[in-house]
Design a protein that fits this description.
6-stranded mixed beta sheet; two-stranded antiparallel sheet; Lysozyme-like; globular
């Protein structure tokens, strides 16, 4: 039953009691009533009123991409903002009358703690919120959901859980410029450059992703890493390499079966200082083609190359100007090359074709062809970006 003076929305009913960890209960409730407009958000000592239920935009299909067993998808217990002691947002988050189309996986780049308790999870969520609000200047936590190393799932940005349960609208986040409305951001506690996530975190991640896919109609193939769209190490080499497995396991929870080919994405490689080889040499030719690099390409990602990448990023007003050549910069650097073209961009194609022993190169080398030449297989990572009007904070 609801508390006095409050009513339950049809999308936020709790069925049963919460179980520790990733218990199989429906996520928390959302209260009916319009969202605040000019008043500050309510204190974090009790449930926070959320946006009222709406029918959703006309012509938007219902959830798709799930198999016949989707009704059996386990539902994670998600701690709402007030449960982990969230601060009041600086102002109410914006709610978009549309569904997201993908999920972005992040890591917090923090310590790989061995404290798997609920208390540790809640402290971590508060620390992230403090950093995002006080250091980044954002209105609230940037991500929609957070998962601790102990497997505890928490709502990140206010109202994200209620809108997920509704399955028609999405709260604007701040986890990745260009992907803050069309993608749900999930922060995973820890640093996964050289180690794998804990089994508890992994299990909660796959169950949470399956539930998000079910509610929003997102295909299990549409799970990506932060580095697919930005110049960043996130979500770590090991967690990023596990994304094909994550797509397959999420599909399995939805009653579908994905082949290894279907679960693999032709992503842009992340290049950094210390890398070497034909991929780096091709990048150097492209940088010289763009006027950011001087001297002869030698296949070594050294300080000279990092400086050239940073110069190119500044010239193109990249959000991440850090010398890492990742998913934000590659699409701008790898310009279309047509048959008969001469110059450094064409030389980059030749270097990669020789390294991959490609007998013939298409007449037009566009982004999907670049990705194949760069050594990645599978369908190309889509370039879709947020609509106009996103605050990115």
């Amino acid at each position: 039953m609801g508390e006095p003076g409050q009513s339950w929305s049809r999308r936020g009913l709790l069925v049963g009691s919460a179980v520790a960890g990733a218990g199989l209960v429906l996520p928390g409730r959302a209260f009916a009533g319009p969202p605040p407009t000019t008043d500050p958000a309510p204190p974090a000592t009790g449930p926070v009123p959320g946006p009222s239920a709406v029918p959703g935009p006309d012509g938007v299909p219902g959830p798709a991409g799930a198999g016949p067993l989707a009704e059996g998808v386990p539902v994670p217990y998600v701690a709402r903002c007030f449960e982990w002691g969230a601060r009041k947002p600086k102002f109410p988050p914006k709610v978009w009358d549309r569904r997201p189309i993908r999920i972005l996986v992040h890591h917090t780049a923090g310590a790989n703690t061995n404290d798997y308790s609920v208390g540790a999870a809640h402290r971590m969520a508060r620390a992230i919120q403090n950093y995002h609000m006080d250091r980044n200047g954002w209105l609230d936590s940037g991500q929609h959901f957070t998962i601790s190393r102990g497997g505890h799932v928490m709502e990140g940005r206010l109202w994200s859980l209620g809108e997920l349960n509704g399955g028609r609208r999405v709260v604007e986040g701040a986890h990745s410029p260009g992907q803050n409305v069309i993608a749900i951001g999930i922060e995973n506690e820890g640093t996964y450059m050289g180690v794998d996530p804990t089994p508890a975190l992994w299990n909660s991640l796959r169950v949470t992703c399956a539930y998000i896919c079910l509610r929003y109609g997102i295909a299990p193939t549409e799970l990506y890493g932060h580095r697919d769209y930005r110049n960043t190490l996130c979500p770590g080499d090991r967690l990023y390499a596990a994304l094909p497995r994550l797509r397959r396991e999420v599909a399995g929870l939805l009653g579908r079966r994905l082949s290894r080919t279907e679960s693999t994405k032709a992503s842009w490689p992340l290049l950094r200082t210390g890398d070497r080889g034909p991929t780096v040499e091709a990048a150097q030719y492209l940088l010289r083609d763009a006027g950011s690099l001087t001297g002869k390409p030698d296949g070594r990602f050294d300080d000279r190359t990092a400086a050239a990448v940073s110069e190119f990023q500044r010239a193109h007003r990249a959000d991440d100007v850090n010398g890492l050549l990742g998913g934000e910069t590659w699409p701008e650097l790898a310009r279309t090359v047509r048959a008969g073209t001469e110059g450094d961009a064409a030389r980059a194609v030749e270097v990669l074709a020789a390294a991959r022993r490609v007998e013939s190169v298409p007449d037009v080398v566009d982004h999907p062809q670049w990705q194949k030449l760069l050594g990645t297989s599978g369908s190309a990572v889509p370039d879709a970006q947020d609509p106009q009007g996103v605050l990115n904070r």
